Amino acid sequence: MSLKLVVVWIIGALFLAGGTWILANLEFPKIGVSETQFTIAIVIAIVLYLLGGLSWISVSVATRSG
């Protein structure tokens, strides 16, 4: 496996860790957090999960074909 694939694999893991960190720290009734901010945080976490999955799928396809 090349260094580029390893870097993309690690970046995917960081995306997943970031999404998990955001979701783990969300509390809606917290003071100073509006419903809109809460929704935006959930959307960002979902996008991070999708980017992490896309990174891992890309590495999987690249190692399978190469």
Quick overview of this protein structure:
By secondary structure, this protein is an all-alpha fold.
Entry keywords:
single chain; 66 residues; mainly alpha; 0% strand
What is the fold's blueprint, element by element?
Elements: H1 3-24, H2 35-65
Write up what this structure looks like.
There is one protein chain. With 66 residues, this protein is mainly alpha-helical. It has one domain. Helix content is 80%, strand content 0%. The protein contains 2 helices and no strands. Helix 1 packs antiparallel against helix 2. The protein starts with a helix and ends with a helix.
What value does the average pLDDT take? 91
- Fraction in helix: over 70%
Q: Which structural class matches the secondary elements?
A: mainly alpha
Q: How many strand segments?
A: 0
Q: From N to C, what is the helix and strand string?
A: HH
Count of discrete structural domains: 1
**How large is the count of helical segments?**
2
Assembly type: single chain
Strand content: under 5%
Shape call:
elongated
Radius of gyration: 15 Å
Largest sheet: none
Please mark out the parts with pLDDT under 50 across 5 or more consecutive residues, or reply none. none
Distance between the termini: 9 Å
